[in-house]
Structure formats: C-alpha cells, structure tokens
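Worked Example 4.2. Read the sequence first, then its structure tokens.
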Amino acid sequence: MTKPGFVFDSWAVIAFVQDETPASHRVRACLEAAGRNEATIAMSMINVGEVLYCIAKAHSLAKADVVLALLRQLPITLVSADDETILAAARISGIL
C-alpha cells in the first residue's frame, strides 16, 4: 500500500508555527503521520525561505533561526529547486 504524500507550502508551516487553527491541527496530523512513517512530506527550499522571511519580518531574525532549526528536525524532506523545477511549478500554478 502506498503512503499518502503531502507537500507543504509556506502558508501551512507559518500556520503551524503560529498555531493558527484549524490549519495548524491539520499540519500537526500530517507531521505525526510522517513521524510514524505512515506518510511522507516534502517542502521546497523556496518555501522554507519564504517562511523564514515572513517570520523574521513579523518577529525577528532570531525567531526565524529557531523556526529553521525546527523545520530541520521535523519529518519533512526539504527539496532544493533548480530553474526547471521552479519554471514547471509556475506553469502548473498558472493553469490550475
């Protein structure tokens, strides 16, 4: 049986970090499933950068560093994005 897979964007992670319900509960459920190896989660480093920017702007650079350390400990595969991946995502986003 195939495990469900999730892709987090910056909005989901910011909602989780700031405990914005109900989104933070859904994100937590996905993280718990991934922690039990019942699901996979991926997130683009571009979205990680956006999270850090938003947290630093709203709070502080120190808080953004804490969030980055948290992200690196969570069961999330952080995916680097090359030019072709970025352009493909933009094209998909443009037609959905």
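Now turn to a second chain, presented in exactly the same format:
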Amino acid sequence: MGGLSSVGPVRTEASVRLDVGGAQSTSPADFAASTAPVRLSAKDRRRNCRLGVINGAIFRVGDVFIDTEMVLTWFLAQLGASNLLIGLVSPIRFGGSFLLSFSMGEPRSAAS
C-alpha cells in the first residue's frame, strides 16, 4: 500500500471550502457573494437586448425554412403537383397524426 497517496479529506456539500480573498471560508454568505451576478452597464444591457432580438429573429426564420409544411409544399410545387394537392398538405399532415389513435381504439357499437 506504499504506492497510494493521500488525496485529502472527503468533501461534502457542507464542507466545501471557497477561496474568498485569499482566506478559506465555508460561510454561505461568502458563497453567495462569490456567485453574485455581475451588474451590467446600460451599454451592455442594450447590446444584449439587440443581440437577443437578432438571435430570436434568425431562429424564427430558420424555423420557418425547416418546417415540414413549408418543405413539403415547396417540394410538391417543384414536382409539378396540382394546387389542390399542395393545399391538402397541411390537413393531411394534421389528420395523419390521428391515425395511430384510431387504430388503437376499440370499435364501439351504436347501442352503447
């Protein structure tokens, strides 16, 4: 057993030591102070807001382009399908989601 070295005391949640200003502390107040959010300047808040709005807009545009109905209608239009079939893409897709429910249900008689 001479090859094993000591790894130190076992740490639990209550005994976690934080290095706050060079001194080790286990105080919850010191932990809260070390993890407090950084206050942003007005310039940084405006920048974060603009970036958040731009991110949301780009996400929505991307979401529209990968939407199933958008892709299927475009694909059918490229294949030369009729306008009626292209118009039925959404109802067929929506109605198709109920097919499994219909197949799993038991038939009921009109008398019940």
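Notes for the reader: The helical segments are 28-34, 42-65, 68-79, 83-87, 89-96, 99-104. The longest strand covers residues 18-20.
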